[in-house]
């Protein structure tokens, strides 16, 4: 095939060579082909005739009108779906090899006659004008904290002009996480853009027990910083494409950094957050030039952060519990019947009675869960031991595994008083400290002694302390023992090799007549038909 490049070379050679034959030979083409292009002014690509005709019969000619009708009603139908339907309706008529033909036919129809496709219009970004944020799930990365899977999200904040980014670790798409994450990002940024774009925040609104006031709180937060809200259309994530694409790139960078680190386990959550900050700092390092253009046009921050913790008033019920956000928490039994105000943060709850904070609790994730502290109810549980066995939250009465082991041991050895004695131990832990009572239980259980309250109290009263379970004492090793071991082994190996070499020429057993060759070192069979051994080495025993 003559290309445009080869054609130009031929035209040059024709001007320098004496004959057309020589020019064609040097160009590497046939002389007849060279003669064809010698007097032509058009390039070979300009002389090519488009292939617009069919070379074989269309196998779908009869059914194509029906296929078109189906495509017009449902443009999303795939060619393979239609092909499988044809094979079902006309068995044996359409072999599998014709699928590609139908795919090309439908592709051409979509290009020339199909419905118009959605157009995405590139936008011009201006410095300091727009920021975007969203939550992204990080569980797929498999990060663990002290061996436990760390199921979490990151509130991700991005400047659309420079792509500068930051984020905050959180555990749900809630109002509190949104408020903390946005304020953390703005104060780290050191300024405020003019507009803030999000999705519809549907997950955060649904998780809020007071969705009617969600919009009011969000508008108040933006007004405090002078931000104007933007929201994309429902189920149109591409409209928030800057942060969505940044999600993908950020998680990809974190995954690669974890691979370089050689492990996905972190000792503490703080260590993991420092790791994330380093990843973000590395990604922001190449954005300094455009970020420098944004900083002068950012608005100034307000004088202080806005405290946007949601506050709810609840009454402490007769079980010494409160119900907040669909979850149950225990408080001091002294507050039963009282109204308390709960300040709900992203990860914690503060319980206030009047002007005094009476408790600080970690916030439970999800709904339908409970957090019961035995300190809050043990005083009355000791007085009502009969309520222990069927107590709805009984599992919370075992603060560590040793408390459960102690209860099981009491059930086996003293079933009639097991509950009473265990509650006495739990009451002691509330007064003297859970750690020292746990040590006492370990000491007693390791010695197969009954972990009764009297024995535990005596241990606590004596003030004894046990070494940690992980303490291991390794005695000093005399390295000369390895030399003696190796020397002895070498002597034994030498003796074994010599013995095997000596006995390798001797085979035990009797060979059948006429088959003495099956015994190594044996001669021909004797007159009696018994193999005769020869070359028996000296020193071999009578056997």
List keywords for this structure.
single chain; 543 residues; alpha/beta; Nucleotidyltransferase, domain 5; 5 domains; five-stranded mixed beta sheet; four-stranded antiparallel beta sheet; 15 strands; 42% helix; extended; disordered C terminus
The helix count comes to 19
Label the overall shape: extended
Radius of gyration, in Å, reads 42 Å
CATH fold descriptor of the largest domain: Nucleotidyltransferase, domain 5
The CATH H-level superfamily of the largest domain is Ribonuclease H-like superfamily/Ribonuclease H
CATH architecture of the largest domain: 2-Layer Sandwich
* Global mean pLDDT: 85
* N-to-C span: 89 Å
Number of separate domains: 5
Beta-strand portion reads: 5-15%
CATH class of the largest domain: Alpha Beta
Task: Explain the overall architecture.
This protein has 543 residues and is of the alpha/beta class. The protein has five domains: 43 residues; 49 residues, no CATH class; 168 residues, Nucleotidyltransferase, domain 5; 62 residues, no CATH class; 86 residues, no CATH class. The protein has 19 helices and 15 strands. The strands form four sheets. The protein has a five-stranded mixed β-sheet, sandwiched between helices. Strands 9-12-13-14 form a four-stranded antiparallel β-sheet, with no helix packed on it. The chain has a three-stranded mixed β-sheet with strand order 3-2-8. Helix 11 crosses helix 12. The protein is extended, with a radius of gyration of 42 Å. The protein starts with a helix and ends in a 40-residue tail after the last helix. The C terminus is likely disordered.
